[in-house]
Specification:
This is Alcohol dehydrogenase. Its cofactor is Zn(2+). Keywords: Metal-binding, NAD, Oxidoreductase, Zinc. This protein is of the alpha/beta class and 380 residues long. The chain folds into two domains: 9-165 and 346-378, Medium-chain alcohol dehydrogenases, catalytic domain (Quinone Oxidoreductase, Chain A, domain 1, Alpha-Beta Complex); 185-322, Rossmann fold. It has eleven helices and 20 strands. Strands 1, 2, 3, 5, 8, 9 and 10 form a seven-stranded mixed sheet that branches. Strands 4, 6, 7, 11, 12, 19 and 20 form a seven-stranded mixed sheet that branches. Strand 2 and strand 3 (31-37) form a beta hairpin. Helix 3 crosses helix 10 (328-340). The two termini are 18 Å apart. The structure holds zinc ion (2 copies).
Protein backbone atom coordinates (compact mmCIF):
# COMPACT_ATOMS: atom_id res chain seq x y z
CA UNK A 1 0.00 0.00 0.00
CA UNK A 2 1.44 3.37 -0.96
CA UNK A 3 0.61 6.79 0.34
CA UNK A 4 1.14 10.17 -1.27
CA UNK A 5 0.30 12.62 1.46
CA UNK A 6 3.02 11.84 3.99
CA UNK A 7 0.57 10.53 6.59
CA UNK A 8 1.06 7.05 7.94
CA UNK A 9 -1.48 4.37 7.10
CA UNK A 10 -2.18 0.92 8.41
CA UNK A 11 -1.85 -2.24 6.33
CA UNK A 12 -4.12 -5.26 6.55
CA UNK A 13 -1.65 -7.04 8.86
CA UNK A 14 -1.79 -4.14 11.32
CA UNK A 15 1.64 -2.89 10.32
CA UNK A 16 2.02 0.82 9.81
CA UNK A 17 3.33 2.52 6.68
CA UNK A 18 5.82 5.22 7.57
CA UNK A 19 8.51 7.14 5.75
CA UNK A 20 12.06 6.09 6.54
CA UNK A 21 15.46 6.95 5.17
CA UNK A 22 16.72 3.64 3.76
CA UNK A 23 20.33 2.76 2.94
CA UNK A 24 20.01 0.10 0.25
CA UNK A 25 23.64 -0.94 -0.17
CA UNK A 26 27.20 -0.06 0.68
CA UNK A 27 27.90 3.57 -0.18
CA UNK A 28 24.42 4.09 -1.61
CA UNK A 29 23.54 6.93 0.72
CA UNK A 30 20.15 7.66 2.26
CA UNK A 31 16.87 7.53 0.31
CA UNK A 32 13.41 8.21 1.74
CA UNK A 33 11.05 5.28 1.15
CA UNK A 34 7.78 4.04 2.58
CA UNK A 35 8.40 1.06 4.86
CA UNK A 36 6.17 -1.11 7.02
CA UNK A 37 6.66 -0.81 10.77
CA UNK A 38 5.38 -3.76 12.82
CA UNK A 39 3.05 -3.42 15.80
CA UNK A 40 4.83 -3.44 19.17
CA UNK A 41 5.07 -6.87 20.80
CA UNK A 42 6.27 -7.75 24.30
CA UNK A 43 8.04 -4.74 25.77
CA UNK A 44 8.48 -2.87 22.49
CA UNK A 45 7.38 0.73 22.27
CA UNK A 46 6.49 2.71 19.16
CA UNK A 47 7.57 6.30 19.12
CA UNK A 48 6.87 9.15 16.75
CA UNK A 49 10.36 10.45 16.07
CA UNK A 50 10.74 14.20 16.61
CA UNK A 51 14.53 14.44 16.31
CA UNK A 52 17.28 12.14 15.04
CA UNK A 53 20.94 13.15 15.14
CA UNK A 54 23.48 12.36 12.43
CA UNK A 55 26.44 10.54 13.98
CA UNK A 56 29.66 9.54 12.23
CA UNK A 57 29.27 5.90 13.21
CA UNK A 58 26.12 5.60 11.05
CA UNK A 59 28.03 6.96 8.09
CA UNK A 60 30.78 4.42 8.75
CA UNK A 61 28.19 1.63 8.59
CA UNK A 62 26.71 3.07 5.40
CA UNK A 63 30.06 3.36 3.66
CA UNK A 64 32.68 0.91 4.96
CA UNK A 65 31.76 -1.70 7.54
CA UNK A 66 30.24 -5.13 6.94
CA UNK A 67 26.50 -4.58 7.28
CA UNK A 68 23.25 -6.17 6.13
CA UNK A 69 21.25 -4.15 3.61
CA UNK A 70 18.78 -2.60 3.25
CA UNK A 71 19.17 -0.89 6.61
CA UNK A 72 17.53 2.00 8.43
CA UNK A 73 20.18 3.85 10.43
CA UNK A 74 19.91 6.64 13.01
CA UNK A 75 20.71 6.01 16.66
CA UNK A 76 20.31 9.43 18.31
CA UNK A 77 16.56 9.50 18.71
CA UNK A 78 13.99 11.49 20.66
CA UNK A 79 10.22 11.33 20.28
CA UNK A 80 6.76 10.76 21.72
CA UNK A 81 5.41 7.34 22.68
CA UNK A 82 2.44 6.44 20.46
CA UNK A 83 1.92 2.75 21.29
CA UNK A 84 3.24 0.25 23.81
CA UNK A 85 3.53 -3.52 23.65
CA UNK A 86 1.34 -5.62 25.99
CA UNK A 87 4.19 -6.20 28.48
CA UNK A 88 5.68 -2.69 28.53
CA UNK A 89 5.48 -1.13 31.99
CA UNK A 90 8.06 1.65 32.13
CA UNK A 91 6.64 4.14 29.61
CA UNK A 92 3.14 5.17 28.57
CA UNK A 93 1.54 6.76 25.53
CA UNK A 94 2.36 10.46 25.36
CA UNK A 95 5.67 10.21 27.25
CA UNK A 96 8.58 12.17 25.78
CA UNK A 97 11.50 9.79 25.49
CA UNK A 98 15.12 9.61 24.37
CA UNK A 99 16.50 6.35 23.02
CA UNK A 100 19.97 5.16 23.88
CA UNK A 101 22.49 2.84 22.27
CA UNK A 102 22.92 0.82 25.44
CA UNK A 103 20.99 -2.41 25.01
CA UNK A 104 20.37 -3.71 28.51
CA UNK A 105 18.27 -6.73 29.46
CA UNK A 106 17.62 -5.33 32.94
CA UNK A 107 17.90 -8.73 34.62
CA UNK A 108 21.50 -9.95 34.39
CA UNK A 109 24.10 -9.56 37.15
CA UNK A 110 25.66 -6.48 35.54
CA UNK A 111 22.32 -4.77 34.92
CA UNK A 112 21.27 -5.43 38.53
CA UNK A 113 24.57 -3.92 39.71
CA UNK A 114 23.76 -0.66 37.83
CA UNK A 115 26.32 -1.54 35.19
CA UNK A 116 23.84 -1.89 32.35
CA UNK A 117 26.45 -0.59 29.86
CA UNK A 118 28.09 -4.00 30.09
CA UNK A 119 24.86 -6.03 30.04
CA UNK A 120 25.47 -9.73 29.53
CA UNK A 121 22.36 -10.23 27.37
CA UNK A 122 21.92 -7.16 25.15
CA UNK A 123 20.25 -9.34 22.49
CA UNK A 124 17.15 -9.61 24.69
CA UNK A 125 16.18 -6.08 23.63
CA UNK A 126 15.95 -7.17 19.99
CA UNK A 127 13.67 -9.51 18.10
CA UNK A 128 14.98 -13.03 17.58
CA UNK A 129 16.14 -14.07 14.10
CA UNK A 130 13.05 -16.26 13.61
CA UNK A 131 10.61 -13.44 14.42
CA UNK A 132 9.28 -11.05 11.75
CA UNK A 133 11.57 -8.03 11.48
CA UNK A 134 10.43 -4.73 12.96
CA UNK A 135 10.72 -3.03 9.58
CA UNK A 136 10.05 -4.39 6.09
CA UNK A 137 10.48 -2.66 2.74
CA UNK A 138 8.90 -4.05 -0.42
CA UNK A 139 8.32 -7.32 1.44
CA UNK A 140 11.99 -7.64 2.45
CA UNK A 141 13.20 -7.55 6.06
CA UNK A 142 15.12 -4.37 6.82
CA UNK A 143 18.19 -4.42 9.08
CA UNK A 144 18.25 -2.01 12.00
CA UNK A 145 21.27 0.20 12.58
CA UNK A 146 23.28 0.64 15.78
CA UNK A 147 21.40 -0.37 18.91
CA UNK A 148 18.49 -1.58 16.75
CA UNK A 149 17.06 1.95 16.99
CA UNK A 150 16.45 2.81 13.29
CA UNK A 151 15.71 6.43 14.05
CA UNK A 152 15.90 7.91 10.55
CA UNK A 153 12.14 7.43 10.17
CA UNK A 154 8.81 9.00 11.06
CA UNK A 155 8.29 6.30 13.67
CA UNK A 156 10.51 3.74 15.38
CA UNK A 157 9.98 0.54 17.35
CA UNK A 158 12.29 0.26 20.36
CA UNK A 159 12.53 -1.93 23.48
CA UNK A 160 11.49 0.03 26.57
CA UNK A 161 14.80 -0.72 28.30
CA UNK A 162 16.46 1.51 25.72
CA UNK A 163 14.20 4.47 26.46
CA UNK A 164 14.49 7.17 29.10
CA UNK A 165 11.61 9.54 29.87
CA UNK A 166 12.53 13.24 29.71
CA UNK A 167 10.65 16.37 30.85
CA UNK A 168 8.19 17.72 28.27
CA UNK A 169 9.94 21.11 28.45
CA UNK A 170 13.06 19.60 26.87
CA UNK A 171 13.44 20.75 23.22
CA UNK A 172 13.75 17.94 20.68
CA UNK A 173 17.03 18.63 18.86
CA UNK A 174 19.30 18.72 21.93
CA UNK A 175 17.27 15.87 23.46
CA UNK A 176 18.24 13.54 20.60
CA UNK A 177 21.93 14.04 21.38
CA UNK A 178 21.53 12.85 24.96
CA UNK A 179 21.45 9.17 23.96
CA UNK A 180 24.87 9.00 22.30
CA UNK A 181 27.37 11.89 22.31
CA UNK A 182 26.29 13.38 25.64
CA UNK A 183 26.28 10.20 27.71
CA UNK A 184 29.54 9.12 26.03
CA UNK A 185 31.45 12.33 26.76
CA UNK A 186 29.94 13.55 30.01
CA UNK A 187 29.50 10.01 31.30
CA UNK A 188 33.21 9.25 30.82
CA UNK A 189 34.03 12.12 33.16
CA UNK A 190 31.26 11.70 35.73
CA UNK A 191 30.86 7.91 35.79
CA UNK A 192 33.97 6.19 34.42
CA UNK A 193 36.58 8.56 35.87
CA UNK A 194 34.50 9.93 38.75
CA UNK A 195 36.33 13.26 38.50
CA UNK A 196 36.38 15.17 41.78
CA UNK A 197 36.14 18.91 42.40
CA UNK A 198 39.53 20.57 42.11
CA UNK A 199 41.12 17.92 39.90
CA UNK A 200 42.73 18.58 36.52
CA UNK A 201 41.19 17.22 33.34
CA UNK A 202 42.56 17.05 29.79
CA UNK A 203 40.29 16.37 26.83
CA UNK A 204 42.00 15.39 23.59
CA UNK A 205 39.81 16.09 20.57
CA UNK A 206 37.37 19.01 20.40
CA UNK A 207 34.52 17.27 18.53
CA UNK A 208 31.05 16.53 19.87
CA UNK A 209 32.08 13.86 22.38
CA UNK A 210 34.98 16.04 23.52
CA UNK A 211 32.69 19.01 24.15
CA UNK A 212 30.39 16.84 26.23
CA UNK A 213 33.40 15.66 28.23
CA UNK A 214 34.18 19.35 28.83
CA UNK A 215 30.60 19.83 30.09
CA UNK A 216 31.04 16.84 32.39
CA UNK A 217 34.29 18.26 33.77
CA UNK A 218 32.61 21.58 34.49
CA UNK A 219 29.73 19.81 36.27
CA UNK A 220 32.26 17.82 38.33
CA UNK A 221 34.01 21.02 39.42
CA UNK A 222 37.37 20.28 37.81
CA UNK A 223 39.84 23.09 38.45
CA UNK A 224 41.52 23.01 35.05
CA UNK A 225 39.78 21.74 31.94
CA UNK A 226 42.35 21.68 29.15
CA UNK A 227 41.22 20.92 25.59
CA UNK A 228 43.73 19.85 22.93
CA UNK A 229 43.10 19.72 19.18
CA UNK A 230 44.92 20.53 15.94
CA UNK A 231 42.27 22.95 14.63
CA UNK A 232 41.90 26.42 16.11
CA UNK A 233 38.32 26.71 14.84
CA UNK A 234 37.34 23.73 17.02
CA UNK A 235 39.29 24.99 20.00
CA UNK A 236 37.57 28.37 19.89
CA UNK A 237 34.20 26.90 20.86
CA UNK A 238 35.59 24.90 23.80
CA UNK A 239 35.26 27.87 26.16
CA UNK A 240 31.49 27.92 25.51
CA UNK A 241 31.30 24.48 27.13
CA UNK A 242 33.58 25.23 30.10
CA UNK A 243 37.21 24.78 29.00
CA UNK A 244 39.69 26.79 31.05
CA UNK A 245 42.62 26.32 28.63
CA UNK A 246 42.97 25.29 24.98
CA UNK A 247 46.13 24.00 23.28
CA UNK A 248 46.84 23.50 19.59
CA UNK A 249 49.14 20.47 19.49
CA UNK A 250 50.43 21.51 16.05
CA UNK A 251 51.96 24.68 17.43
CA UNK A 252 52.76 23.71 21.04
CA UNK A 253 54.15 20.68 22.88
CA UNK A 254 50.95 19.51 24.63
CA UNK A 255 52.77 17.36 27.21
CA UNK A 256 55.02 20.23 28.34
CA UNK A 257 52.12 22.70 28.33
CA UNK A 258 49.85 20.46 30.42
CA UNK A 259 52.67 19.98 32.95
CA UNK A 260 53.15 23.74 33.07
CA UNK A 261 49.44 24.43 33.65
CA UNK A 262 48.83 21.69 36.20
CA UNK A 263 52.21 21.70 37.92
CA UNK A 264 52.33 17.92 38.30
CA UNK A 265 50.53 16.51 35.26
CA UNK A 266 46.85 15.80 34.66
CA UNK A 267 44.70 13.76 37.04
CA UNK A 268 42.50 12.57 34.15
CA UNK A 269 43.11 12.48 30.39
CA UNK A 270 40.24 11.63 28.02
CA UNK A 271 41.39 10.54 24.57
CA UNK A 272 38.54 11.19 22.13
CA UNK A 273 40.94 11.02 19.14
CA UNK A 274 42.32 7.48 19.20
CA UNK A 275 45.50 7.91 17.16
CA UNK A 276 48.65 6.21 18.51
CA UNK A 277 50.78 9.33 18.89
CA UNK A 278 47.92 11.21 20.58
CA UNK A 279 47.23 8.37 23.01
CA UNK A 280 50.96 8.22 23.80
CA UNK A 281 50.97 11.94 24.63
CA UNK A 282 47.95 11.38 26.87
CA UNK A 283 49.86 8.82 28.93
CA UNK A 284 52.93 11.06 29.12
CA UNK A 285 51.01 14.00 30.54
CA UNK A 286 49.41 12.02 33.41
CA UNK A 287 50.11 12.88 37.02
CA UNK A 288 51.02 10.22 39.55
CA UNK A 289 47.84 8.29 40.30
CA UNK A 290 46.25 9.64 37.12
CA UNK A 291 43.98 7.87 34.65
CA UNK A 292 43.95 7.76 30.85
CA UNK A 293 40.55 6.93 29.33
CA UNK A 294 40.29 5.57 25.80
CA UNK A 295 37.06 6.82 24.21
CA UNK A 296 37.72 7.49 20.52
CA UNK A 297 38.97 5.19 17.78
CA UNK A 298 40.76 7.18 15.09
CA UNK A 299 41.93 4.24 13.00
CA UNK A 300 42.25 0.47 12.91
CA UNK A 301 45.70 0.59 14.55
CA UNK A 302 44.50 2.73 17.47
CA UNK A 303 46.20 1.53 20.63
CA UNK A 304 48.98 2.12 23.08
CA UNK A 305 52.10 0.37 24.38
CA UNK A 306 52.19 0.60 28.14
CA UNK A 307 55.48 0.21 29.99
CA UNK A 308 54.53 -1.72 33.09
CA UNK A 309 57.31 -0.27 35.21
CA UNK A 310 56.37 3.32 34.31
CA UNK A 311 52.65 3.03 35.11
CA UNK A 312 53.26 0.75 38.09
CA UNK A 313 55.65 3.07 39.87
CA UNK A 314 53.30 6.03 39.26
CA UNK A 315 50.11 4.09 40.10
CA UNK A 316 48.48 5.10 36.83
CA UNK A 317 45.65 3.41 34.99
CA UNK A 318 44.54 3.07 31.39
CA UNK A 319 40.84 2.32 30.95
CA UNK A 320 38.63 1.68 27.94
CA UNK A 321 35.30 3.51 28.22
CA UNK A 322 32.19 2.56 26.24
CA UNK A 323 29.09 4.79 26.37
CA UNK A 324 30.46 6.69 29.35
CA UNK A 325 29.70 3.80 31.73
CA UNK A 326 26.21 5.27 31.60
CA UNK A 327 22.90 4.08 32.98
CA UNK A 328 20.32 5.44 30.53
CA UNK A 329 17.34 5.73 32.83
CA UNK A 330 19.34 7.59 35.47
CA UNK A 331 21.68 9.72 33.37
CA UNK A 332 19.55 10.94 30.43
CA UNK A 333 16.85 12.58 32.61
CA UNK A 334 19.64 14.06 34.76
CA UNK A 335 21.35 15.72 31.77
CA UNK A 336 17.99 16.97 30.49
CA UNK A 337 17.30 18.51 33.88
CA UNK A 338 20.77 20.13 34.05
CA UNK A 339 20.18 21.56 30.56
CA UNK A 340 16.81 23.00 31.59
CA UNK A 341 18.48 24.57 34.63
CA UNK A 342 21.00 26.27 32.33
CA UNK A 343 23.89 24.24 33.75
CA UNK A 344 24.78 22.23 30.66
CA UNK A 345 25.38 23.58 27.16
CA UNK A 346 23.63 21.42 24.57
CA UNK A 347 22.38 24.16 22.26
CA UNK A 348 25.83 24.83 20.80
CA UNK A 349 26.12 21.14 19.84
CA UNK A 350 23.29 21.53 17.33
CA UNK A 351 24.80 23.22 14.28
CA UNK A 352 22.02 22.55 11.81
CA UNK A 353 18.48 21.13 11.61
CA UNK A 354 17.37 19.35 8.43
CA UNK A 355 14.54 17.24 6.98
CA UNK A 356 14.47 13.44 6.60
CA UNK A 357 15.26 13.80 2.91
CA UNK A 358 18.44 15.82 3.51
CA UNK A 359 20.58 13.27 5.35
CA UNK A 360 23.12 12.92 2.51
CA UNK A 361 23.67 16.70 2.51
CA UNK A 362 23.74 16.67 6.31
CA UNK A 363 26.64 14.22 6.36
CA UNK A 364 28.45 16.38 3.79
CA UNK A 365 28.25 19.38 6.09
CA UNK A 366 29.56 17.30 9.02
CA UNK A 367 32.91 17.16 7.21
CA UNK A 368 33.30 20.85 8.00
CA UNK A 369 35.21 21.23 11.29
CA UNK A 370 32.77 23.97 12.29
CA UNK A 371 29.76 21.65 12.32
CA UNK A 372 29.30 19.68 15.52
CA UNK A 373 25.97 17.95 14.99
CA UNK A 374 23.26 17.94 12.34
CA UNK A 375 19.83 16.84 13.54
CA UNK A 376 16.77 15.76 11.54
CA UNK A 377 13.76 17.56 12.98
CA UNK A 378 11.44 17.69 9.94
CA UNK A 379 9.85 14.31 9.17
CA UNK A 380 6.99 15.49 6.92
ZN1 LIG B 1 26.38 8.29 17.86
ZN1 LIG C 1 21.65 -7.20 31.39
Amino acid sequence: MRTRDGCSHTTRKGNKIVKASVTKGLGQGFVVEEVELADPVGREVRIEVRAAGLCHSDLTIATVAGQDFPVVLGHEVAGVVTAVGPEARQVKIGDHVVAGLIRACGDCANCLAARSYICLHPERTQRAADEPSRITWQGRPVALGLGGLAGFAQEALIHENQLAVIPEAMPWAPAALLGCGVITGAGAVLNSADVQAGQSVVIMGAGGVGMNAVSGARLAGAESVIVIDVEDVKLERAADFGATHVLNSRTTDPVAEVRKITGHGADHVFDCVGLRHVTRQGLEMLAKGGGLYLIGVGGLDAGIDVQTIAVLTRSQRVQGVDMGSSHLKRDIPMYASLYLQGRMNLDDLVSQQISLGEINEGYESLKDGNTLRVVVTDFS
